[in-house]
Structures are given as C-alpha cells and as structure tokens.
Design goal:
- The chain is mainly alpha-helical.
- It is 63% helix and 7% strand.
- The chain has 9 helices and 3 strands.
- It has a 3-stranded antiparallel sheet with strand order 1-2-3.
- Helix 4 runs antiparallel to helix 5.
- It starts with a strand and ends in a 6-residue tail after the last helix.
C-alpha cells in the first residue's frame, strides 16, 4: 500500500482495493476527519465528476451541491475554489488509472501485453470522460498529471515496458517518454474526433514491436 499526494489531496492506493482519499486540505496533520465529512467530500467529488462528464466546463459549484445533496457551504469547505474541485476530480482519475495499471496491467508479466492493456484503458477513460478533460484544460491549462502522481505513473509505465521487453513484445529502445508522447496523440485524437483511437493504438503498436534481428 502506498500514498499519492498532489494538488492538496491524498489518495491511498491499495493493490487489493481502489483509490481512496485519506485526508482533506482542511484536516490538521495527525487528525482523522469525521466520517460524515469524508462521506460528504466523496459525494461532492462523485457528483462533480458526473456533472463534468455530462456538461464539461459549464458546471458551477451550486449545481454540484444540489447533485451531491449537500449545501453549497459544504462544497466550499472541502474545495475552496472551483479550480480546486476540478483539480481534485482530475487527480482522482489519475489515481484510478494508476490503480488499474498496478492491479490489472502488471499482473501477467509473461504475456508482455500490459502496456497495450494500459493504453487501451487510458483511451477508454479519455473517450468516456471528455467533459472532465475539457474542464481541466480550461481551468488548469493542461490535463496532464503532475507531481507525485506523475512520478508514480511513470514508475508503473516503466515496469510495463520492462515486462514487454522481457516478453519480447516491445522494442528495446522504448522509453517512458515515448509512451507519454503516444498518450498525448491519443488524447488529441479523442478530443478532436479526428479518427478511431483504438485503430491508432493498434497501428502504434506495430512500431513498438521489436525490430527484426533484435
């Protein structure tokens, strides 16, 4: 079990479970938040993600409060600004992607298919959650992960690359930066609707296979 800390929130990643928030910005160090406060925060975050997915950057804080069944003041206690709420939703999405990489993509090293599984999962998340991506881009300026969550994702992708090399399904010179270049292209294809993102992954993997003679 390990923690991911970033943008004012902390998630605990448990290989046997999911991404779970274990603290809030307003909780003093060493003091566990009340159970009802944790529940309210989770409800607000879940409602915000659903609304962002449906309506993108049009969503405002009072709407989130109504959807979560709490007062607007409760929303602002956990997320002092709209930007903080958008960032928290994005951070949770990255934590869930990391959890998938750890529990689903790394579990079968002999097949060497973990990286392909990871990229298809990321593509599906981006395709299903374009409203949140648009909100993050409009509010923060970039939908890319940052800080500790980025470091943990890079470690996981590095392990997937190592597995693929060992299984002889990935070329020896493939780097983590190459994978994130592919993710950037994947994101652009989905955002602009300029093609079939699944076909893009299939074509990309033709270039990721070991070269003849390696």
């Amino acid at each position: 079990m390990y923690d991911i800390i970033g943008i004012g929130i902390r998630f605990r990643i448990d290989p046997g479970g999911g991404a779970r928030n274990v603290s809030t910005p307003s909780t003093p160090a060493g003091r566990k938040p009340r159970a009802d406060a944790e529940r309210n925060r989770s409800r607000v975050l879940a409602a915000a993600r659903a609304l962002f997915q449906e309506r993108g950057d049009e969503v405002q804080m009072p709407e989130v409060a109504r959807a979560a069944g709490v007062g607007t003041g409760t929303v602002y206690r956990h997320f002092p600004t709209r930007q903080a709420l958008v960032e928290a939703a994005a951070e949770l999405r990255f934590a869930e992607i990391l959890q998938f990489a750890r529990t689903d993509c790394l579990r079968d090293p002999e097949s060497g298919q973990g990286l392909a599984r990871y990229l298809r999962h990321v593509g599906q998340i981006l395709a299903d959650d374009q409203g949140l991506s648009a909100s993050v881009a409009a509010t923060v300026g970039s939908s890319a992960p940052r800080g500790e969550i980025l470091a943990q994702l890079e470690l996981a992708v590095g392990e997937l690359i190592d597995q693929g090399r060992s299984a002889r399904t990935l070329r020896e010179d493939l780097a983590v930066s190459d994978v994130y270049m592919l993710v950037g292209a994947l994101s652009a294809i989905i955002r602009t609707g300029s093609g079939d993102w699944r076909r893009f992954i299939d074509l990309a993997f033709d270039g990721l296979r070991p070269r003849t003679g390696n």
